[in-house]
Design a protein that fits this description.
Elements: H1 2-21, H2 26-53, H3 59-62, E1 66-72, H4 80-87, H5 90-93, E2 96-102, H6 106-114, E3 120-123, H7 126-133, E4 140-147, E5 152-156, E6 172-174, H8 181-192, E7 201-203, H9 211-216, E8 222-226, H10 229-236, E9 240-244, H11 245-249, E10 255-260, H12 261-266, H13 268-287, H14 290-297, H15 306-318, H16 330-342, H17 352-355, H18 359-365
Parallel strand pairs: 1-2, 1-3, 6-7, 6-8
Antiparallel strand pairs: 3-10, 4-10, 5-8, 5-9
Length: 367
């Protein structure tokens, strides 16, 4: 439309010049200039109308959206339904201007929620249990569960087609933060297979997000990595995915969205709209191919080419990573408490009704 207006303006100017040379009157030139101005204004109005009609955001429409700050534990393809909701404009459709911040660790996400730097936290729900058991007066309540399996993979330094978890005995493994879901689910998997974590040399000293670089640098015989780090190690020839922690663990409530009870009480409509947008993202992921999902979320992972992104999405799809809905059931919560007790990080079980609400997720799945 801008190009057309520029061309139109050039044509008018040329016509005016010809008229002047031919002896056209000033009155005729003024009339032509008026026609040009009216035409440009009409085109501008039509352009604005088309812009808004297409669902784009203008400064005026921004004022109708309510801002929500969401702090995520990590930026990973593992959370594809959330990114599909962002990139497909589902939050805007629900009247939300979403500000996404990456906290790089559940402890940092929780700190942001407690300090009210973030309205909503996206992290492992174990952190809400810790906060409740520490006596928080304003409980952090889980209102939507996104993933139902672990999203990390065991990466070996060499290809091992016959790998079993028993191969980890005595080996140095770069694990996760003590008390975090990645590390606890990894230990849960070991125990399920008759291996005590003490039989494995688990290094928990490396910061979240730095284990892949440490592994590339020669540290450890194995590392436990999320995507796209696991695939990046393979592509660089520095490691090989030999097992999925998610497949080995079975269904576990790995990540959930949570907020202060007071925030939920005071912003019920807003939380419902937020959950509705997430459910639309979940519906998109469950009804589209890996290629379509990868294409939808590619802007979130500009450093990963589309082919690799598709491969990773397919890998998560095949292991049934994502729920069909966002309901955090009591059965899942009880399993979480079992894992926490097994890891000896809690001495008392927090009540489900204090730390989970399913109202928003139940409402969203019926829309």
């Amino acid at each position: 439309m801008n190009l057309k207006r520029h061309l139109f303006s050039l044509l008018i100017i040329t016509a005016l010049t010809v008229c002047i040379i031919a002896g056209c009157s000033k009155k005729d030139a003024a009339q032509n200039a008026t026609v040009q101005k009216s035409s440009n204004e009409a085109d501008l109005n039509k352009s604005d109308a088309d812009y808004l009609e297409a669902g784009k955001t203008s400064s005026e429409s921004d004022e109708t959206l309510t801002k929500i700050t969401l702090n995520e534990v990590a930026h990973s393809i593992f959370y594809a339904p959330m990114y599909a909701a962002i990139e497909n404009g589902y939050f805007e459709q629900e009247g939300i201007d979403l500000d996404l911040v990456t906290g790089f660790g559940a402890d940092k996400v929780m700190a942001a929620v407690l300090s009210e730097e973030a309205d909503i936290g996206f992290m492992g729900p174990e952190t809400t249990v810790y906060t409740y058991n520490e006596g928080s007066a304003d409980a952090i309540v889980n209102f939507a569960q996104l993933t139902q399996r672990a999203g990390n993979f065991i990466v070996a330094r060499e290809q091992k087609d016959d790998f079993t978890l028993a191969d980890l005995k005595g080996a140095e493994v770069l694990g996760g933060r003590a008390g975090g879901m990645p590390e606890m689910v990894f230990e849960y998997v070991l125990k399920k297979n008759g291996i005590q974590p003490s039989e494995v040399k688990i290094d928990q000293s490396i910061d979240f997000g730095s284990t892949a670089a440490a592994f590339s640098g020669g540290k450890g015989a194995y590392t436990v990595e999320f995507e796209p780090s696991a695939t990046a190690l393979e592509q660089a020839g520095d490691g090989f995915v030999v097992s999925s922690v998610g497949v080995e663990s079975g269904y576990v409530p790995y990540t959930a969205f949570s907020a202060k009870q007071s925030y939920l009480d005071n912003h019920k409509d807003l939380i419902q709209s937020f959950t509705n947008a997430l459910q639309k993202g979940m519906d998109y992921v469950t009804s589209h191919s890996g290629k379509e999902i990868a294409d939808a979320i590619k802007n979130q992972f500009s450093e990963t080419d589309l082919e690799t992104l598709t491969m990773i999405v397919d890998r998560y799809h095949e292991q049934d990573t994502w729920k069909d809905d966002l309901v955090f059931s009591q059965e899942s919560f009880d399993l979480l408490l079992n894992i926490l007790e097994d890891a000896e990080v809690i001495t008392k079980r927090a009540p489900y009704e204090k730390l989970v609400t399913t109202t928003f997720a139940e409402n969203a799945k019926t829309k």
